[in-house]
């Protein structure tokens, strides 16, 4: 299997659905992606802010595996990196199989801790009808599989750009399946 890498990076300064491709993004410890509407120590997702604006932001960085875009294209959904609002598009890493708390070194300096799954929402169907169902599946045991990527917090800042290596740092803790955050 090829080494895990960053395929593309994105950000948007406004609360919209998709994010714009960038040459590089800067991750800031405890904050998220510099210049992104979802960056901050406390929640920025609008529905969560309405419920409790003091909640910690466990969604500072959104990562989606490029392989999902290939799967969606094959199913007839023209969806490209950045369209689903992720900050980092990855390749060669099974994001959905990671444990809660897994740390990812993105490029030489940035360190992100995975906090959980992105919970797909109805905005997907507004973007393209049927897309929400396409990012949901069932595991062999019948449990719901959310395929819309993972969320994380920035532990160490740094610049991240397409082509950067991704290193999965081992954890001594027992595997904790990802839950929506």
Automatic annotation (TrEMBL):
Q: Which Pfam families match?
A: MOSC
Any idea where the MOSC domain is?
A: 20-169
Q: Which Gene3D superfamilies match?
A: PK beta-barrel domain-like
Q: Which GO terms describe its molecular function?
A: catalytic activity; molybdenum ion binding; pyridoxal phosphate binding
UniProt-listed InterPro entries: MoCF_Sase_C, MOSC_domain, Pyrv_Knase-like_insert_dom_sf
State the superkingdom: Bacteria
- What's the protein here called? MOSC domain-containing protein
Its source organism is: Ramlibacter henchirensis
* Taxonomic path: Bacteria, Pseudomonadati, Pseudomonadota, Betaproteobacteria, Burkholderiales
